[in-house]
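Weekly structure sync, notes
Attendees: PL (lead), two postdocs, one rotation student
Agenda item 3: pending single-chain targets
PL asked that the sequence for the first pending target be pasted directly into the notes so everyone works from the same version. It is reproduced below exactly as submitted, 169 residues in total.
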Amino acid sequence: MIKTFRSTNQQGFTLIELMITVILVGIVAAIALPSFNSSIARGQVSSTANRIVGALNYARAEATKRGTEVTIALTTANATNSWADGYQVWLDSDGDSTVNGTEVALRSFESINPSLALTGSAAALRFDGRGFASGAHTLNLCTAEAGAEDRQISVALSGRVEITDFTCP
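Predicted structure, written out during the meeting:
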């Protein structure tokens, strides 16, 4: 009598095990993807808001360091005061909120992500040599993502910049 010796050690996976694993991974991905998209949108809003606050604080710091008026304003003027197309900081020696040939441009900032909207109460903000703002201003940073956390950036008369949660209309 001849005995056949079969190994009971399995190596690898069966086709059914692989199919079940692929289906489970697909279900988990379908559940997690919408949450991931809103996480990306929140990250974009936060990083853009922080970049704007950094620009405002930079303008204020330059004004106090140099002891003169510094303006931050839209790169290109528009009727809606949309800051989304970029903005710039310069030494505004004549206080007219426009860059003239003799005024020194300190820094320019590129446009923001096209999925975001940034509108303000004014087209320009000025800081005097003591760091005080020319007026109280607000900038609203909004996204089209439903349920996303929008931000409002406020500049007080004292020059203090603050970010708060905001629901865009």
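Discussion points:
- Strands lie at 70-74, 87-91, 105-109, 116-120, 124-127, 137-143, 150-155, 161-166.
- The chain has one domain: 15-166.
Action: rotation student to compare against the earlier draft before next sync.
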